[in-house]
Request: fold
Amino acid sequence: MKEHIAASVAIVGGGPVGLSLALDLAWRGVDVVLAEQRPAGEPPSVKCNHISARTMEILRRLGLAREIRAAGLPDDYPNDVVFRTRATGYELTRIPIPSREHRLSSMHGPDTRWPTPEPAHRINQIYFEPILFRHAAQSPGVRILNRTRVEGFRDDGQRVLATARDLDTDRTYTIECRYLIGCDGGRSGVRAGIGAKLHGDEVIQRVQSSYIRAPALIDLITPPPAWMSYIYNPQRAGNLVAIDGRERWLIHNYLLAHERDFESVDRDGCIRALLGVGGDFEYEIIAKEDWIGRRLVADTLRERRVFICGDAAHLWVPYAGYGMNAGIADAMNLSWLLAAHLKGWAPESILGAYEKERLPITEQVSRFAMQHAEGAIRERTHLPPEIEDDTPAGAAARAQVGRAAYDLNVQQFACAGLNFGYFYDTSPLIAYDGEKQPHYTMFDYTPSTVPGCRTPHLWLADGRSLYDALGPDYTLLRFDPSIDVSTLMRAAAERGVPLALLDVRAREESTAYRHKLLLSRPDQHVAWRSDEPPADPVALMDVARGAAM
Reply:
């Protein structure tokens, strides 16, 4: 009988964001209870198909990257993105992306040479979420309550008391925690409970999506196959995603502006038009996954001891695969802040940095996604009528559309800027030095140690990734071992800040590292840099732990 359950942190929602947050908090020594309405083992939605490089870096730190990279499509299945008139029609252009067997070694194409030990991985949520769940369930610091709905909560200033219902027995009980985090999706009850409101664009694109089984399709598709196939023709536009590389597919049908009701649009007819197959082609609909692309951002991410992450905090068109990945970035930012406070080396004021840092980034990324979506909508709704003609004019039209499609979409499929370029420029936890962070776009990234930027990756002389050598909390990178940093290390000890010292010997010189000392945060953002220890090291430690807010 569950009458009362207590933990330091309670998480509502057991999707990829909630599970990642639970795993990271447990890795940092914080006990967690996670409530999820679905039963254990129930397959998730097929809506997410991409794990970003930043998320893969996190999974590497948690010891999960190798297992997750081994899952999904077959080793040799092309991860390319193609544009075709139909799945079985003319190919317009192709963005080459290495298959899993060449992902870490290929140096050719726009989606290679990433400044990270863990480039992006194309994998559907049905494969990677169960891995997260299994590891979270096995973690001694995590308790998962499946078939549990959190129906309300009360923050009394010292703790949060949440009312939970066991959906199998209909019994209610209390979850007591010091902090409660809503990772409960776009219809978030936690968001409603803290009075947060979503603002932005309610509808950018309606998409009729179908998860299908079609064993014969793989042999009909215009070769070579691809992970993702955009389909552009004057009749319909859509997107076909390979789920298992054999028989299961997710097909998106982009509805036209006047098509406002999913079920009023002929699903079967549109699927056949997009695939380019006749009425005798056999397929099975496994699930309907219809969705609306939006650009909505919450006006607040926190109310006292209650926070929201992921789709509970923001919804946007999933271009560049950054819906789930942005949610995991939220969770990782909040995780280290919570752990710092709960483990006693940071005051509660440090938690105020979560909204100050993540809300501006959420706004930026949502606008990147919306602008790209608007460009793609214009592109696919203004196609030359002769694009499918087997004539010189048709070939010219295909070449023109293909060039434009490549130029627009290579930005989202080789999005180094979105992965590595964003920065925190108004954080109370960062000691700025007056230099402006470099501009970034969805595609463009300039490695930089300007405070607030991501700590640039480099390979160490001993063959390790810099990220593998960083401590779990703050790390002081020293590029000149002759510099005496004892005053800074003593200041950290005095303030209780866990600070590791790493003398860096890089395999190759990095132009990004122009200073001899750099303080890297637990989330691998630069907190401070200089050529000499600070005049007031205690003051710097107070900034780093949120005591100067």
In short: The CA atoms of residues 356 and 427 lie 6 Å apart. The radius of gyration is 24 Å. The chain is about 30% helix and 25% strand.
